[in-house]
Amino acid sequence: MKWYNLSTILLQGAIYTALTAFSAGGPKLPHPTQRAAVRTIIIDPGHGGFDTGTKGLQIAEKEVALDVGMKLGKLIEETWPDVKVVYTRTTDVMPGGGSTIASGLNYRAELANKSRGDIFIALHCDNDGHPAGPFTVRRIVGHRYAGKGKRRRRVPIYESYTGHHTRKGTETFIWKADRAGFKGSAINEIGEGEVTDSAGETESDSLAFDMNSPEARIRAQLYEKKYFANSALFATLVEDEFSKAGRASEGVFQRDAGIRVLQATGMPSVLIEMGFLSNVEEEQYLISEDGQNEIARNIMDALRRYKATLESHATN
Q1: Is 310 helix (H, G, I), strand (E, B) or coil?
Q2: DSSP conformation class of 97
Q3: DSSP structural state of residue 60
Q4: Cβ pair 72, 43 in contact under 8 A
Q5: CA–CA separation, 15 vs 226, rounded Å?
């Protein structure tokens, strides 16, 4: 699997765009003061059911993701009673009840879009490419010749030794910018340009567009830029909160593979890797109530800052 790190310049530019691109002099989108910046939050505990995700020595990724997801949802509900929380799953099942991982990913995205989420938060755990616990590593220590005549060849000599997991910390991923067209399709499907009329009811400007028209494509492109910027902004705040809590943060990345739930959701979206289950110390932290509660609080604090930033910008 290949990862692409966002450069500092791109991150700074994206965050700046989130705060400035849709001001009075920018594209004419729904006025931000007409609606709260965050009204519906989608929480997506990764994996579930037959799909365990990565495994530690004592716990599977699907379990940690669900535990933290439920804790985060409770914090949101207690903090913002008017904000709707939508879970892609609340038990150990594959979302949608399908028999394949692909069907589960499609269900998550469809649920988020139908719920008109304002931000999508996928929760996962990581590994370093090796199973949990000690593992065997082979390395080349020299070469020898084997065979005779035309079959004589140079072959490597291997040495085996026991490896230990040292990688730890957090990472947050956003959808890959060069796949913007996929995101635009999802945006147009849910009619993101939802505004509030004088009676307080909501209506969608998507009704005014032919989804295949140039106007719809332009509209989607404008929102793609906004959502990329807002995704980068929230992801940066999440990693900042983890860092303040003393966690090792590897930063914000664009994800090249396994991107379905990020690119198919018509809203800002992030995938948070909460720690490495392959690392014994990290696993103990991820299992513990204190660790899970701290992770949920860190994400909640990032949400507070994200919401306040967007709403302050709208006010000013």
Answers
A1: helix
A2: G
A3: B
A4: yes
A5: 10
DSSP state of 13: H
Query: Mean pLDDT of residues grouped by 10 in the chain (316 residues)?
Result: 46 51 47 70 97 94 98 97 97 95 94 95 91 77 87 87 80 77 59 37 38 56 77 95 96 76 90 94 95 98 96 66
Only one residue has tokens 């059911």, namely 49
Give the three-state DSSP class for 148: coil
Q: Which has the closest alpha carbon to 276: 64, 106, 102?
A: 64
What is the Cα–Cα distance from 303 to 60, expressed in whole angstroms? Answer: 26
Paired tokens of 48: 């579930």
- Residue 15 confidence (pLDDT): 52
**Rounded to whole angstroms, how far apart are CA atoms 141 and 159?**
6
Helices (H), the chain: 8-20, 61-79, 101-114, 180-190, 214-244, 260-263, 280-287, 289-315
Domains (range + CATH), the chain: 3-130+167-315 (3.40.630.40), 132-164 (no CATH)
What totals of helices (H) and strands (E) does the chain contain, helices first? 8, 11
160-195: b (≥16 Cβ within 10 Å) or e: eeeeebeebbbbbbbbbbebbebbbbbbbbbbbbbe
Dist CA 221 CA 11 (whole Å): 19
